[in-house]
Amino acid sequence: MHGLTPAIYARLCPSGEPVPEGIRKCEAPLVQRICDEILEAPRSVCWDDIAGLEHAKAVVQEVAVWPLLAPQLFRGARSVPGGLLLFGPPGTGKTLIGRAIAAQAKATFFGISASSLGSKWIGEGEKLVRALFAVATALAPSVIFIDEVDALLSARKGGDGEHEASRRLKTELLVQMEGVAGDQEGRTVLLVGATNRPQELDEAARRRLAKQVYIPLPCSAARRQIVSHLLRDEASCKHTLSAGDLDMICSRTDGYSGSDMKHLVQEAARAPLRELRGANVDLAAFSPELVRPINLDDFRRAAKQVRPSVTPTDVAAHEEWDRRHGAQATVADEDSDGEWGAPVAHT
């Protein structure tokens, strides 16, 4: 079993087949670490769990989910990039989209951060990268999701401006990414990077993450959906919010990210509990059904505690990057830009 534990061998070779060649070339302890620390448990995430972002979800399904579900259709001229970059302000749902890709494509999910591939031993980081891609290939279809990808693949510096271990890890990661991008015989491993600072990415990394999708702040309708979804999911958090109250909340939260909206709802939902604490009620013995419903005043007070975490300057920077590099949304009757001529009528 190439030094693998019985559990890991059963996961990689469920039918008792020989260990794949890519796994045999990797050290067994590193394969074990990939499976134990990086391979995440399945989590069901559907597109309806992600408020708004209709353009982003449509692009992601076309270039990520469909090729993993039907790789035989995405060959040759229909082949898709092996890498996808999700960029935008923090807290807008980039990680959730990565999980949705894996869930909807019934793929294995690998959650990576800079610390996942770190090691105190020289050369072990590169070996971990090779083991990661070997395990992902063995468990294909797979999604390798790299959060804060700029931390691993920032622009390379010449001379003494970059540590040797960091440079070698970055080089190995780029080599493995090139291998994924170069496989045109149907996509089975997808690399998804997420970043709040796309301008800091290395040019070679940006080329490998060829499809770049902007994940913006939620619009008013999306913010309303977030509030309604959170309050609906928790039956013990009753509320008296009318449609007009929800409109008021959405109008007063322009500039809030999805994460900000979640924190706002949580802050408002705790307001009735503070009143019980002030009345010297034993919270440990108090029934959730007896807590008063959440109202608009709770949200008004919560808004003084939870402020937007994204500045207009950050938004403007991401929008400029989207104009220059992003996969832009198009409307059928607006496709003509004066250079390509009028849209072609399909019959």
Layout: helices, strands, pairs:
Elements lengths: L5 H7 L8 H4 L3 H11 L15 H16 L13 E5 L6 H11 L3 E5 L11 H15 L3 E5 L2 H4 L11 H19 L6 E7 L7 H6 L2 E4 L5 H14 L9 H9 L6 H12 L1 H8 L17 H7 L9 H14 L22
Parallel strand pairs: 1-4, 1-5, 2-3, 3-4
Helix pairs in contact: 3-6, 4-5, 6-8, 10-11, 10-12, 12-14
3D architecture notes:
This protein is an alpha/beta fold. The protein has 15 helices and 5 strands. The longest helix has 19 residues, at 164-182.
Cα-atom Rg, whole angstroms?
23 Å
Q: What fold name stands as the CATH topology of the largest domain? A: Rossmann fold
The pLDDT mean sits at 84
The number of distinct structural domains comes to 2
Offer a quick outline of the entry.
This protein has 347 residues and is α/β, with parallel strands linked by helices. Helix content is 45%, strand content 7%.
Give descriptors for this structure.
about 350 residues, alpha/beta, Rossmann fold, Helicase, Ruva Protein, domain 3, 2 domains, 5-stranded parallel β-sheet, globular
